[in-house]
Amino acid sequence: MTIFEKYERLTARKQFTPQDCHFTFDGDDEWSIARVFIGEIAVGHAYLTINGDCAKLDDIVLQASLPHWNQMLRRMPGTRVSYRGRGIGSIFLRRVLDWLRERGVRRVWGQIGGGDPVRQATWYRSHGFSVDTDTRRIERELLPQRSPALANGIAPHHRAKK
Prior knowledge:
A seven-stranded mixed β-sheet has the order 1-2-3-4-7-9-8. A hairpin with a 2-residue loop joins strand 2 and strand 3. By secondary structure, it is α+β, with helices and mostly antiparallel strands. The relative contact order is 0.13.
């Protein structure tokens, strides 16, 4: 299967899964850029400023649409593939928060940017952020990652009896 066929198959889905995406994180201990890819195409980015155990989410953007490769190759104008509203932003934000947590960050904050502030506030709240609608400030505490056993309600020292 060519890269173009793979990309066409991925973008035809209504909802994306974490397995459809891959991520890169570049930068240093104070400033980083995260990117999310579908196939070989970067479809979003986040800018992060890290200061000790606190990080500012300077920007998180998911492309509204990108030209569909197959149509570009055929030189047929106008066909676009939307990446919004299909789960990629949520997958990306969770991965960014996990990456920050792995680096010892305990609090994330930022500002709601341009666009629809009501929709953005709702989206951030759905991901555990508090939102001040007057100042557009978002904030969330990051708890340490729980072990898979604890996440399933099983204490690691309890074992099944034989």
